[in-house]
Amino acid sequence: MNNSKFTSEVLRQDPSLLRNSYPTSGKWDMPIIKKSEVDITGVKLIRADHIRRKDNRAVADKTVHFFVEDNKLDRYYDNPENYRLRLAQYAHVLTPDYSLYIDMPLSIQIYNTFRSRYCGADWQDYGLSVIPTVSWSTSESYDFCFDGIELGSVVAVSTVGGLRNNKLSKEEFKKLFLEGYWEMKRRINPRQVLCYGTAFCEMGEEVISVPYFETIRRGK
């Protein structure tokens, strides 16, 4: 037997390699996160890097967010199954917020969007209450960054870190953010929007804003 050929056949059937376990949408095959009938009014957030394997604190009403540095996110995509039980202790889970920088190649932006959707689809399949995090860069990203999210879903966005990471002025960031936000509303028509950070007044009444400093205090 040709061992190398056998190994290749086994690997091609491994879902962790192919990442083809869930239904997809769009030409880039983004895993679909199904719409959940959740209410995020009064939401309380906790950072993903603050959660514990067995959390004895009063956490059942908290929602886990992944608005953290990218180097802290790889573990969730590499082994999403390792975090199912840990995340199941909390009310809801956002999907990882992999960066979409304006000077990042589109191929990497597509991959980062896929990774976020895949984690959400995996955790939702396990029974967790998942809220998709939506990110975008320029209008070129609209071709993929809203895929995998059903119409009328509750979603999360962030206004934190955009100025520093994208090297934009405050006015440039606001313009770019709102253009993407309005495109998101047109394509997804979210029922509620969780905004991590200060929301812009132009974003609409469906936005529930959780200030950055408040999430840090609550997470401790």
UniProtKB/TrEMBL annotation:
InterPro entries per the record? Answer: DUF4417
Q: Which protein is depicted? A: DUF4417 domain-containing protein
Q: Which organism is it from?
A: Desulfitobacterium hafniense (strain DSM 10664 / DCB-2)
Organism ancestry: Bacteria, Bacillati, Bacillota, Clostridia, Eubacteriales
